[in-house]
Design goal:
Elements: E1 5-6, E2 9-10, E3 15-19, H1 27-34, E4 40-46, E5 54-59, H2 62-72, E6 76-77, E7 80-81, E8 83-85, E9 111-116, H3 124-131, E10 137-142, E11 147-152, H4 155-164, E12 180-183
Antiparallel strand pairs: 1-2, 3-5, 3-8, 4-5, 6-7, 9-11, 9-12, 10-11
Length: 190
Amino acid sequence: MSGWADERGGEGDGRIYVGNLPTDVREKDLEDLFYKYGRIRDIELKNRHGLVPFAFVRFEDPRDAEDAIYGRNGYDYGQCRLRVEFPRTYGGRGGWPRGGRNGPPTRRSDFRVLVSGLPPSGSWQDLKDHMREAGDVCYADVQKDGMGMVEYLRKEDMEYALRKLDDTKFRSHEVGPHLLLRSLYLDHST
């Protein structure tokens, strides 16, 4: 199994993931964004207070889902750059595979951002939630000294995070200082 489908659906059933949505998004907004790609069967909006909203949109025809991904991934929607792709789940429970029972995800990339200014009680989950505003975070970890590291799947997401999230207020259960970001990416292609 490639990891791109779960028991609730995925690539073959017309279901897509829509991430990096604005906090005030409504189901009607999603319908307006995607209706032109085909008949929508269902919209499942996840908008918990304090987290970046995301949604699953299911089309009647799986080919329409492919068209929606092609047409809307990377689309600037207000102040947000949408992430639209087939949902990823592993092992039937959803989410990235974990390094341990409560450890950070183990998938890694070269698109790293060093984060400073984290509050002492900030967790890797809090950091990942904050940084996913810029794109798909595949790894996040924090140290006790207020430092953390985040890795993105795509270079463009890392660059967008550096522009959008540098000097932002860290949102967690404890209000912290402003975060300072620095890229750790070394371009080996030149």
